[in-house]
Amino acid sequence: MPEMLIRPYSPCDENAVVALWERCGLTRPWNNPRKDLERKLKVDPGLFMVGLIKDKIAASAMGGYEGHRGWVNYLAIEPDFQRQGLGRQMMQAIEEKLLTLGCPKVNLQVRTGNVKAIEFYKRIGYSPDEAVSMGKRLIEDKG
Hints:
Layout: E1 5-8, H1 14-23, H2 33-40, E2 48-53, E3 56-65, E4 70-77, H3 86-100, E5 106-108, H4 115-123
Parallel strand pairs: 4-5
Antiparallel strand pairs: 1-2, 2-3, 3-4
């Protein structure tokens, strides 16, 4: 397993993080990743972590907590480093931060077609909830 340093996200990481998300297929036309970063920095910025290998960003995980449940978004591992334990390390780092805040449970969403991600989360102890995920867009982010 490559040695990875996990630290909080910094605004100077923006270009590298967006490029990582793009390489990992996490961006979508209806979500502007730069606006997602800008919004995250306004709420719980300490729960947004990046992983560095040889001083280059190779991982990210964006956590959140509103007092009832924790959430994880944008878990990304550089494709060349996937399946080497780095995703588990990133999730552990976010889970530990959430635990220090008293967070009793972590939720996340995975697109139903992303079988690799679903299997990864199952391997690290996550299981499907008997719930329906619903959403309503309040701000259009196109572009």
